[in-house]
């Protein structure tokens, strides 16, 4: 019943296992994949066959390696701001405000937009090989899909500052210690464990859970997301952004002035 180009959706026992599937780009978020995710969440909200959603990435290496750098490399400030604003509204906020619980099963790299996707989910578990980080400053950008807002909430402001400034990745073990992920399991066990948690949730009152999500999310709202989008857009007009993205595509280190 579900048909998406870049998502594999398997529904069983009221649990939807949603696999982001662009293995050739380590599941990077391009426009088509973002559209698929957005459409899936719209459909899932009113689908009585689905009580819990698990998000994961295809392959054994990557959850999501970020927004698709090749797709936005020649955007200007206006396009960059639009991209971030639309993405936040149509995908990331939609996930966070989903009526059905969303578990991110982080099976490898969760970088940039990939970590932002995991953070927009209601909670995260990870496999031992997972690596999580926000490397946008290496491209002359900042996180544009809510990362500046959600990372400090989850791990504290000082740790988030350091992670975003250094672009360092957290190992799964470290991510667990600081509360970025709730559990770490071997990769072969990851989906089973996610399904086990989902099954437990699916037996509780779905109307109560819907209200719990709404109440827990209610404490978050201020204008931080707007500031992030505006700064994100401004950076597209800077030289560093051109240098950062071109360097990535040319597989060399950027030379920031
Ligand atoms: N975008 C596009 N293509 C990508 C991306 C990406 N984010 N990540 C990996 N790929 C591609 C590579 O280009 C490569 O393609 P090809 O084979 O055609 O050269 C293929 O996937 C495999 O990747 P690598 O060969 O690089 O694999 P490695 O094992 O050597 O390295 C890494 C894995 C470390 C994950 C490396 O791929 C990497 O550093 N990727 C980029 C990570 C990154 O910087 N992510 C942040 C992107 S910016 C972002 O997410 C902004 C969020 C806010 C956006 C708001 C609106 C846009």
From TrEMBL:
Presence of the UniProt keyword Lyase in the record: yes
GO BP, one annotated term: fatty acid beta-oxidation
Organism superkingdom: Bacteria
CDD domains assigned: crotonase-like
Record GO terms (molecular function): lyase activity
Entry keyword set: Lyase
Entry-linked Pfam families: ECH_1
InterPro entries in alphabetical order: ClpP/crotonase-like_dom_sf, Enoyl-CoA_hyd/isom_CS, Enoyl-CoA_hydra/iso
PANTHER family in the cross-refs: ENOYL-COA HYDRATASE, MITOCHONDRIAL, ENOYL-COA HYDRATASE-RELATED
Family: Belongs to the enoyl-CoA hydratase/isomerase family.
Protein name: Enoyl-CoA hydratase
């Amino acid at each position: 019943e579900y048909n998406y180009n870049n998502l594999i959706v398997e529904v069983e026992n009221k649990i939807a296992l949603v696999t982001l599937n662009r293995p050739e780009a380590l599941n990077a978020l391009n426009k088509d994949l973002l559209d698929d995710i957005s459409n899936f969440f719209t459909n899932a909200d009113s689908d009585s066959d689905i009580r819990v959603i698990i998000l994961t990435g295809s392959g054994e290496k990557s959850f999501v390696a970020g927004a698709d750098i090749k797709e936005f490399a020649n955007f200007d400030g206006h396009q960059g701001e639009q991209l971030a604003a639309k993405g936040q509204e149509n995908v990331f906020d939609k996930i966070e405000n989903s009526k059905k619980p969303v578990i991110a099963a982080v099976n490898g790299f969760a970088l940039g937009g990939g970590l932002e996707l995991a953070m927009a989910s209601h909670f995260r578990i990870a496999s031992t090989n997972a690596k999580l980080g926000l490397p946008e400053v290496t491209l002359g950008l900042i996180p544009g899909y809510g990362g500046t807002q959600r990372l400090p909430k989850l791990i504290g402001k000082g740790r988030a500052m350091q992670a975003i400034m250094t672009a360092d990745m957290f190992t799964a073990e470290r991510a667990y210690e600081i509360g970025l992920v709730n559990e770490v399991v071997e990769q072969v066990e990851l989906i089973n464990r996610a399904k086990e948690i989902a099954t437990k949730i699916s037996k509780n009152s779905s109307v109560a859970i819907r209200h719990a999500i709404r109440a827990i999310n209610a404490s978050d709202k201020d204008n931080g997301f707007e500031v992030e989008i505006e700064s994100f857009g401004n950076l597209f007009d800077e030289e560093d952004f051109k240098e950062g993205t071109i360097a990535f595509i040319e597989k060399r280190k950027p030379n920031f002035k």
